[in-house]
Specification:
The protein has 508 residues and is an alpha+beta fold. It is built from 18 helices and eleven strands.
Length: 508
């Protein structure tokens, strides 16, 4: 109702009621049911605002609740573990692509040294991959994480990383440092909403924030977060949509656990015909009515409790929780997983209802979900690696005379992700072989899927072949399997039959 409806209702309640009835009827006749305010949508009120206006008043509270679940919820732990396993897994290795093998080898050697905790982290406590694992977790819980480039005099190179939580952005800062800039939520932006600098809180020795923040140029800050709307300026926790579901599952399991523990207790209650004599050995004292008080209101195994005269024991026994807990929790885990775009199996690690085909399809779909976070992580690692190479040049660790004139070529590189273990290696190997023979995949693609560089793989195979032939071995059959045509034909026949049946379900 608007102010006109209120005014009419005040002057004439009858006409106000008629007007409201007609309005409700017209709402039901609108073109879109989702826009109506009839009986079904009567309490659904939503407003259009910019992403920053929508987020800023809820961001801190959602982050605090997500952190609480991170500390106390096994469901949240399972969800975080699924992302960490599938995004980071066994880690990433870098393959420089400068075109000069000797330079590539030297950059790999220096990179492996720099990735150690004493060289890459200003605190000297985390290696590079540990920092990346923490980045994924903090992005999911806090919404984002800040990496600052720090140039120090200790370590392998004069370049290290400082990791900050998003809480350390000083939202009280309002005065921009550049002309025409604007400061919103601790970040200074230009007229195009591009970050120019970050206001970081300063802390004293005792941990209290000091008055004046310090300012860091945007070129020295890497802010990892997901931007979902053009008007979004700051992060929002990735688990925003599912933390209420996770908390519901926790509360349900707590209630079921308490109920089952109470039902497992054997207790005896003794009812007296008269109050016990004074000093009978009761340590509970008396209640406000003068009757002997009970020692407690909990039930423990083997407990023997005296009752006051007139008291009766009545048990309240809700039914259903214990019997339905399994199905209820499975439903919650499916909803939690689907809300984050991953399968029930990836979150719960329960494979009892899966066969090879369904598990393989789930892995494919899950990989598409993890891919967007992998892309963001690789962008972050790209900038770190490029800064690392420039630091190698500036510090004299690597000498490249024409580096600044051909910088893009010397910064060229590729990230190799550690491979996953497949469910059925034989089927995967046969599928890869058929894909190569039919031109659906190249050797380079298969090597990339297995976390290897195809050139390095061929060089290694050639080296093994030459060494084996020097020992008089038939390396064609050992390395390349050229003489195993009969086995390959048998494998082809097995693949053409449509696959084996699952031993438990009988499905393919």
């Amino acid at each position: 109702m608007n102010w006109i409806d209120n005014l009419i209702g005040f002057i004439s309640p009858k006409w106000g009621a008629v007007r409201q009835a007609w309005r409700m009827q017209m709402d039901e006749l609108r073109n879109y049911d989702a826009a109506g305010f009839g009986r079904v949508n009567n309490n659904w009120r939503a407003y259009n605002q910019s992403a920053d206006m929508t987020d800023r008043y809820s961001r801190d509270q959602i982050r605090a609740r997500a952190r609480d679940l991170e500390r106390n919820s096994d469901f949240m732990g399972a969800l975080l573990s699924a992302y960490e396993r599938n995004i980071i897994g066994g880690g990433y290795t870098v393959q420089p692509k400068t075109g000069t093998p000797a330079l590539d080898d030297e950059l790999i050697r220096l990179w492996n040294l720099w990735c150690k905790k004493q060289n890459c982290d200003v605190t000297g406590t985390q290696s590079f991959m540990e920092l990346m694992r923490m980045a994924i977790i903090r992005k999911k819980i806090d919404g984002g994480i800040l990496f600052l480039k720090r140039y120090t005099s200790d370590g392998l190179l004069p370049f290290k990383l400082q990791v900050l939580e998003v809480d350390e952005l000083d939202i009280t800062a309002i005065k921009p440092r550049t002309e025409g800039g604007k400061v919103v939520n601790g970040i200074e932006y230009d007229r195009y909403n591009k970050p120019v600098g970050y206001f970081i809180k300063q802390y004293s020795v005792d941990g209290f924030a000091e008055t004046e923040p310090y300012y860091v140029d945007a070129k020295d800050v890497m802010f990892l977060f997901s931007k979902r709307r053009p008007s979004q300026l700051r992060e929002m926790p990735d688990f925003t949509q599912t933390i209420t579901r996770i908390r519901d599952a926790n509360e349900f399991m707590t209630a079921v656990s308490v109920k089952e523990r109470i039902e497992a207790c054997f207790s005896v209650f003794i009812k007296r015909a008269a109050p016990p004599p004074s000093g009978f050995g009761r340590s509970g004292g008396v209640d406000e009515s003068g009757n002997p008080a009970y020692l407690g209101k909990t039930v423990s195994p083997g407990m023997i409790q005296y009752l006051n005269p007139g008291d009766e024991v009545t048990a309240f026994n809700p039914t259903g929780q214990g019997a339905d807990a399994t199905n209820h929790i499975k439903t919650h885990e499916r909803l939690i997983g689907s809300g984050q775009g991953i399968s029930y199996e990836a979150m719960s690690r329960d494979m009892s209802l899966s066969n090879y085909s369904s598990a393989r399809q789930g892995l494919i779909e899950d990989e598409l979900t993890f891919r967007k976070d992998i892309e963001l992580l690789i962008e972050l690692m790209d900038e770190i690696y490029e800064t690392f190479v420039i630091s190698c040049i500036l510090s004299g660790r690597v000498t490249v005379p024409d580096f600044w004139g051909n910088k893009d070529a010397y910064l060229s590189h590729k990230w190799i992700r550690a491979p996953k273990q497949w469910i059925d290696p034989l089927k995967e190997s046969n599928a890869n072989r058929i894909a190569m023979q039919t031109g659906q995949k190249t050797f380079a693609q298969i090597c990339a899927e297995n976390g290897r560089d195809w050139k390095a793989t061929l060089e290694e195979m050639a080296e093994i072949k030459d060494f084996g032939e020097g020992l008089g071995l038939d390396m064609d059959s050992i390395v390349f399997g050229i003489k195993e045509t009969a086995a390959l034909a048998a494998d082809d026949k097995e693949v053409d039959t449509g696959g084996e049946k699952d031993s438990k379900t009988g499905s393919e």
